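During the reporting period the student researcher (J.K.) took over the structure-prediction task from the postdoctoral fellow and processed the backlog of single-chain submissions. One of the processed entries is reproduced below for the supervisory committee.
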Amino acid sequence: KQALLSGSDRVLRLFDLPFSANALPVARSIFQDVYGKTQWTKCQFSHNNDYVVASAATPGHQLINIWDKDSGVLVHTLEGSIDYAADMTYHRLRPILITVAADGSGIYEWSTEMPQLWSAYDPRFTELEGNAVRIEREDEFEYATTDD
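J.K. obtained the following C-alpha cells:
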C-alpha cells in the first residue's frame, strides 16, 4: 500500500506504508514543480495507479501535472484558462479526469480520444483506412414494382 501527501513545503511525497503497525512509513519518491514552486490543491493516483496527478493553486489558470509514479518523471501538463481546480477525481476504469473550478464556474472533463471500433458491433463490418471508390452497376438498385 502507498500514500500520497501534499505538504506546505510545496512537495508531494509518496510513502510506502508498512505492513507492521509498529513500523514507520518510508518516503519513496518526491514530486514537485522545481521552477514554479507551485502550491498543490489536490493530489491523487491515476485510475490505473501508474501516475501521480496534482492540481496547482494558480488563480485564473488551471494547471495539472502528471508524473510517472515509478520514475518520478513529469510526463504531461494539462493547462486550462479557467480558475484553479478546487477538487478533482479520476474515473475508476478509464483515463478520464474530472475537475471542479474553485470559482464555481463549472465541472471540466480531461480525457484522451478513444478510437471508435465499429467492428465490435458487427463482425461483418470492415473498417477502412480511407475513402473507397465504388462504382454502382446500372441496375443494382432498380427493383421491379407491380402496379395495381
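The committee noted the following: The chain has a mean pLDDT of 81.
J.K. will present the remaining backlog at the next meeting.
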